[in-house]
Amino acid sequence: MTLMKQLHLLSFFILFTITAFAQDTEALLAEGKRLKAQYKEQEALAKFESVLKKEPDNEMALQQASCLLSVTGDRQKSREQQVASYEKAQSYAQTGIRLNEKNAEHHFNYALALGRLSLLADSEGRLKNARLIKQQAERALALDPKHAGANHIMGRLNREISNMSSVKVLAAKALYGGVPENCSFAQAELYFQKAMQNRPGYILYHYDAALNYVYMGKKAEARKLLEKAVSLPMITRDDPYRVNDCKALLAKLK
After folding, report:
1. 151 φ/ψ angles, rounded to the nearest 5 degrees
2. What is the phi/psi pair of residue 143, to 5°?
3. What is the pLDDT of residues 36-52, one digit of tens each?
4. How many whole angstroms separate alpha carbon 213 and alpha carbon 217?
5. How far is 175 from 97, CA to CA, in rounded Å?
6. 23 pLDDT exceeds 50?
7. Sequence-distant contacts of 42-45: CB under 8 A, at least 24 apart
8. Hey, where are the domains in the chain?
9. CA–CA gap between residue 90 and residue 200 (Å, rounded)
10. Domain 40-120: top CATH class
């Protein structure tokens, strides 16, 4: 075989390998999206992480895997495993931001992972992350004002900070330079309304909005949202637990 033929064969082999590799990646991404749409989160996560093993900077895989790690993290058996899941989600989101700062999903995923980590922390740890969570959620909304998840995060942030004691707020000011300013239950209400408008069938948003109404003393509005929430179709693995939370809060209000 001549040298020229050998070079032609080598070029063909390289091109074939690259094409097959790309097709494999696209197939995994497509399958991951399909599984995620069916709320088969663990199976979807496995597909996206398979892509990341070969292409650590694949933006779509980073975006999807980060979100799924945060969503499924509380299903882990131990606190250590939960923290590991959320920290991995945070790392993927940070890589995504580095690759494309103008992708709202990466900023939302960063805020979501930090928020989940904060839920496992003590009150000081929650306050420490509050400013960064707000910064990332607001950046997501600047890029996509209709982002339901980012609106929900901003609603919870406003609600939780508004519900803090003045002692905790003063402590945060001394330790971390303060908490996000101008937070209120009224602001939380606006953010929750936007979240529900842009994802109307999501039970969690109704529950959190209702709880905010309880803190505001608007019990009638809270009951109305909770009654609607328990009538919604349960579409995610977590929805049965959320419906139970709605029913428990509704019973207290009656």
Report:
1. -65, -40
2. -85, -30
3. 999 899 999 999 999 99
4. 6
5. 28
6. yes
7. 42/72, 44/68, 45/69, 45/72
8. 40-120, 122-197, 200-254
9. 27
10. mainly alpha
Distance CA 245, CA 252 (A): 11
Whole-angstrom Cα distance, residue 249 to residue 211? Answer: 8
User: How far is Cα 106 from Cα 180, in angstroms, rounded to an integer?
Assistant: 21
Long-range CB contacts (within 8 A, 24+) of 209-217: 209/155, 210/246, 210/249, 211/159, 211/249, 212/155, 212/159, 212/185, 212/188, 213/189, 214/249, 214/253, 215/159, 215/162, 215/163, 215/185, 216/185, 216/186, 216/189
* Torsional sign, CA 173, 195, 229, 204: negative
| Interhelix angle 59-72/41-54, nearest 10 degrees | 140
pLDDT digits (tens, 9 = 90+) for 117-137: 988 877 666 777 888 999 999
